[in-house]
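Hi L.,

You mentioned the student needs an example of a multi-chain input paired with its predicted structure. This one should do, with 878 residues in total across all chains.
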Amino acid sequence: MRNLRFVWLILIAAGLALPSLAAAKETETLEFSENKINANWTGHGTITLEQQPTGILLRTTGTGYILTEMSVGIIPQTGQITVSSPANAEIYFAWFPGNNTSKESYDVPIAVPAGDSIIPFSLLQNQNWQAGMRQYGLVLPPKTTLLLHRIELTQWNPFEQLLTGIRSFWTFDSFRPYSINFVWGPQLTTDPVLRDIIFDYQPPITISGTYVINGLLLLCVVIFAFLAIKLGKFPARRKALLVSNTMILILAFWAALDLRMGSEFISWFAHDYQTYISAPDGFKAFRDRDRFYDFTAFASPYLFDRQSYVFFATTMWPFLGDMRYLTYPAIPGIAFDRDDTWVIYSRPDIMVGPDNRLIMDGTPISEPGKILGRFDESSFVFRTLQKPSAGQPPATSPSK
Amino acid sequence: MNLLALIIGIAVPGSLGWLALLLLEKNRLVLTSLERIVWALVLGPTLFVFLAFVFHVIGFTKLNLIGFLLPNIVILAILVFLAIRTGAWAKFRTANPVPVSDPGTKPIKRWIFVGLILLGIWTAVKIFAGAVDLFSVPTYWDDSFNNWNMRGKIFFVSEQLELTIPNGNGYIQNAEGVSSYPPSLPLIKTWLGDLRGSWEEPVVNGVHLLWFIGLILSFYLFLRRSETKAVSVFGVYLLVSLPLMLIHGTNPYAEIFLASHLFITVSCLINASRAKDTEELTSWLKLFGLAFGLLLFTKNEATVIYAPLLILMLAWIIREKLRGNRITPKQIKILAAKVALVAACLGLPWIAFKWFNGLTFGNAKSVTATQLGFSLNVLNAIWFQLTHEANWLLLPLSIPLVIILSGKRSFRFPIGILTAFVLLAIFIQFMIFTIAVPLHAEAVNQTGLNRGLLHIAPVALLLVILLTRQLMLEPEKD
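Structure written out for the whole complex:
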């Protein structure tokens, strides 16, 4: 009984300690607005720095760096920048490792959208994130302009890391073209930012949960085998003990993995149901194909009496093969000199010009004609007024 | 209408399959009534389109509704006549149910019962979700719209066995050599389209559920021959829990189509190895002949990988039966001739057709022209796919574990048949991807290996269950 009370006491003490652990997250904030700058920043390369009331305006002609040597005092896993940018840009958070004086630097990419934004990024994307930071800052590619307001670097405490690890195990991939060939399965990370983008990486850069379970299982079997040899007198009984323990363990891990993978499978169905199966006509969006199948249903009536037609889509794969199947016996192709019907799916660069010809990037690509039906801004069916004559190939590639 | 077309479209070939099975086992009925129905639903459609294929390539029929129905109704009538004439029908009507051992006399514990109910519900929910998706969403996967469904639709429109797929003057990148795949699956879709009167996605895709459910039921019924209901239900849970199995079972792909045929073929061999007398052995081996012949008409892997292995296992069984004096050499000769005849009648026409039309032998790529070379990257990729990904949950680890724990017992006859088949099939799969240069990329890019393993996964899981049961319930004595 005393032992039991002691266990309870430890559990209660651990429970009480949790909030203090949770509060132990450490964040270093680097400010760039006027009168709030708390570090020495220097520009390197072809970059100009201009102080403004809300931050530092950075402009590059070639590649430019803005760096500081201020000690952060922590080993951060996550960062976050607050910026304003007139256009989309890809910049990098870079650091020179603290454990040596080499000139080699490490970096992680940050996609900056146009406008004001707060962008989290994970340092765990780079395997050298634990190397410490002697000097760090941002790298901007040529011809980049942005107003930098703030950089925050965060080190998560063990409790948060554990919680994120558990949550990451239950973070699902979506149903993608590769899901018919393999599934990544559960992934483990201690970084909340990385958890949100686990499956944006192919393959994921996180630790495989399946691998960890396989390893744990194997380790346990080795321990069971060792104990069975060490403790038992009778070989057959020892083996029976080893077998039953191993099987119980396999089944327990199997069930846990199945719960994870089965839930992911059902989440795919739920997504399909919401976005496609139960969505009203005209609003059906299917996985990565978006509104393609709605568009095909729209375009097919214009093709029933055609043997072939010209087809443009955002990409060749998978739309071309899928279109061939869905509209067969009408075949999509590039017979500009023979086919009078043009099916255009999601190509904002293709439009009807002033002389009623289709133009792509300003170059006419068809005989004059008219739009038979428009699906949306960039998707429509077009037919030439007369059979096209030879020699009308487009100046550029038929698909992007 | 779609559902009606699907039901009729499965029931008609199913009755053909049912009669074929009954006639083959007429001397000794070895299948249970439910087993015969399930096997008929899996094998029947393949037999149905095989007959339509043969009559079509001879030039008698087109691939339209009449072209499918006419030869099959003629054959069906002949089978009915034979079933009555040979007494198979009467035997079926009067025969006692096939005895299936039932070790489940002891009531199971309440917590196990509740656990099984929960696992059963969980399994049913997953299958239901996948089935709704299968019937409701458009054709999404590359191999479906470039091969299986595309060829079926071409046959449906042209009413002929077209071997080329139009590619828009080369604009469309064709999946090269897909016409070398047996046309069985596309032909089943063509038949359903003809029956429905139009090409309907829910019908031509929904039929794939048949092979998944057929595989699950075959798996359950096989286990029930030697295990309790609880173990058999748990086996089904394990089968459906394999993520890639569930995904393929509820999507229009060909792997479960092959896997269900392969499982039935292997079942025949294991049951034959357990046969107690010559008549029972004869029935199982005749059924094997039918399943084996139809297997060759499912996918190319069946001819190149599984057929040689199955023949090897068959040879082992015959050797053991001869050694045990369960059958005489003379009886074996007659039986082998019968089995070979059934298998050849079903398997050879397609192989001959390929030969005459210059179609490749191999998985869309010719095996004879394959360049050989070892790749370490492939071995790394295989290791990664088996240990880092959740495709098979813990099955890859469980197979070596139970075999090591079972020791020599796992290779003793009759369970050794299963062990040897699984290990050799896995080895061949790995070897092909490791040494065939054109397949290196498929293993590294993860587009081929797991799909190959899908065929043998049910058999491998069966091995794990049977060996585990042996380890737990029949431990070695001190």
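You could point out the following to them. Helices of chain A lie at 2-22, 158-169, 192-196, 209-231, 235-277, 292-299, 319-327. Residues 235-277 of chain A form the longest helix (43 residues).

Best wishes,
N.
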